[in-house]
Specification:
Elements lengths: L5 H11 L4 H13 L1 E5 L8 E2 L3 E4 L2 E7 L2 H9 L8 E5 H8 L5 E4 L8 E3 L1 H12 L9 E5 L6 H12 L7 E9 L4 E8 L6 H14 L8 E5 L4 H9 L1 E4 L23 E2 L1
Helix pairs in contact: 1-2, 4-5, 6-7
């Protein structure tokens, strides 16, 4: 029996509570963050990928799987030859399919999480992931421990920042009041690596979006460890560590889509 995957678990939670919007958001978040194996029509040509498109009654779909063996099991029903595929983050697949009127088949016929996402759902996911943080300037006057935030946001931040290991020394979440009286919450990254600010801010924004908070607000800032505000946050804020992952033995990356600066082109 195949071991339950994180996508299986998220799908089971979603289907067990169809009225639970938070469970549905967690499934989409898991889909976006996970690595998916996209079935191709033929071997990749450089960074150009040609997905296998299936014409179904409800329209064309491409198929992805959250495990290589699941893709192999699906493909074996059609042919004994090895199936060409590309391993891509779910967010990349959604972004490349957006606006093309193509649905997404997930683990079809090989897992309990098998389902079809229509083109509208694919477009929604791509748009949701594409929302970037807005820049603003404000001076905090009061910092206190965070209060009243749902557990979904805390666990979502913890998971997102764990995958951002090494991009900052730490992050602190605190309640904040600014000059002028505006109140909210602030997530501060301390000693962020140069150039990592956008990725960290986007991760925080996604954690807020997928936590299911209606009209939620959380400001993001970047501070040096010697900044007095960082010292105040360390006393009252909820700390998230971003430990750098162990450096693996260098391996040449040649798989299509493996370079985040060169997303593949789906044709």
């Amino acid at each position: 029996m195949t071991e339950e995957t994180p996508l299986d678990a998220a799908h089971a939670a979603m289907t067990a509570a169809p009225e639970d919007g938070a469970a549905r958001l967690r499934f989409y978040e898991r889909l976006a963050d996970g690595e998916l194996f996209l079935l191709l029509e033929r071997e990749a040509e450089g960074e150009s990928l040609t997905p296998q498109v299936f014409g179904l009654e409800d329209g064309p779909v491409v198929v992805v799987f959250d495990r290589e063996e699941r893709l192999a099991a699906f493909a074996a029903d059609a042919s004994d030859a090895p199936a060409p595929y590309a391993a891509l983050p779910g967010r990349v697949v959604a972004a490349q399919l957006a606006g093309q009127g193509i649905g997404l088949g997930i683990n079809l016929g090989v897992a309990p999480s098998a389902m079809l996402l229509g083109p509208e759902a694919v477009d929604w996911l791509a748009v949701t992931l594409g929302h970037g943080p807005e820049q603003a300037e404000a001076t905090p006057t009061v910092l206190t421990p965070p209060a009243g935030l749902p557990e979904a946001l805390i666990t979502g931040l913890d998971a997102k920042l764990a995958r951002a290991g090494g991009l900052a020394a730490a992050a602190f979440l605190a309640a904040v009041e600014y000059e002028g009286g505006r109140r909210g919450h602030m997530l501060a990254f301390v000693d962020a690596v140069a150039g990592a600010e956008e990725a960290l801010a986007r991760a925080a924004a996604e954690a807020l979006t997928f936590s299911g908070i209606d009209a939620g607000e959380m400001d993001v800032t970047f501070l040096a460890g010697t900044d007095p505000v960082a010292e105040r946050l360390a006393r009252v804020g909820l700390r998230f560590d971003l430990p750098a992952p162990e450096t693996p033995e260098r391996v040449e990356r040649i798989a299509p889509g493996s370079d985040p600066d060169k997303p593949p082109i789906l044709r």
